[in-house]
Amino acid sequence: MQTIDSHPIRFGELAGPLVHGSLFFDWELISTQEITDALGHRFQDIVAADGIPYAPVVASTSVHRYPTFEDTVSVETVPVDVGDSSVELVYEMTDGDGEAVATGRITHVTIAPEGGALDLPDATREAFADRLVDRDPAVGPDAPRMKADGAGGEDGAAAETGDALPTFSASFPIRSPHIEGSELAYFEEYPSFADAALEAFLEDAGTSRAALSGARQPFRLADWRWEFTSPVPVESTLRVESDVRAVDDRAVRIEHTLLSDDTPSIEGVTEYGCFDRSGERVPFEADALEPFRSA
Predict the structure, then answer these.
(1) What angle do helix axes 22-38 and 189-204 make, rounded to 10 degrees?
(2) How do the domains of the chain map onto residue ranges?
(3) Nearest-angstrom CA–CA distance, 295 and 203
(4) Which fold has domain 157-295?
(5) What is the pLDDT of residues 218-259, one digit of tens each?
(6) Where is region (Disordered) located (predicted)?
(7) CA 101 to chain centre
(8) CATH class for the domain made up of 1-139
(9) In CATH terms, are 1-139 and 157-295 the same topology?
């Protein structure tokens, strides 16, 4: 199903010359609502009954190219698995030329007011089952893919892994600008909080993402797999704990734990990449990675 059709990139969606990384989450959520509405299981009806509609359980995405001005984005959304209470959707995001922008896959459940997953309505489950597609894209930080031009190998920076790499954390109050209709932190806000924690680390190390940006745009979301165990409610405090696990000129790999009032809510692995101003993946420059190697 075409859930987003030729959406033009607008100025307010940009962070510098490229779209904000949270937009990939946003387009996935919009697409989820579009496909479920089309099958008669409307978000507004679920929220009216105090449920949490199609909450992510496991979310993985890989960015192939960052859109920028003059781009349009379309999203095709298809179910690849359905159970009594869950559905797994694949999101294929393309530009105006039909070239891949990003690919995501998310397993969703609807949360009951008292907690726990609600069974899908019979008609909705049957509709998903009738539309199942045999598609199994490899996405997320562990998916095999081509390296960025010049990354790795003899000319690239040597990879560093292990416990000698830095850890850092930051805390954020969850207020009304960050919440959705269910009085919970909004899906697209989580990567923004992780980004803010990373930027604070860079500043503490004596640099900043803004100072490193120019022809290259470092520390953009590239690949991630996050698992969600509990929601983050309004007026709670969200702490983002970041454990850097690997660094090379292709990616900075960070294990994230997001805790709501000290209760783990989200755990996952995120890889940050470097992109040029046209949105193509390129290697990091050495000075961008120095804060991780000297910490």
Answers:
(1) 170
(2) 1-139, 157-295
(3) 12
(4) Thiol Ester Dehydrase; Chain A (3.10.129)
(5) 999 999 999 999 888 889 999 999 999 999 999 999 999 999
(6) 135-161
(7) 13
(8) alpha beta
(9) yes
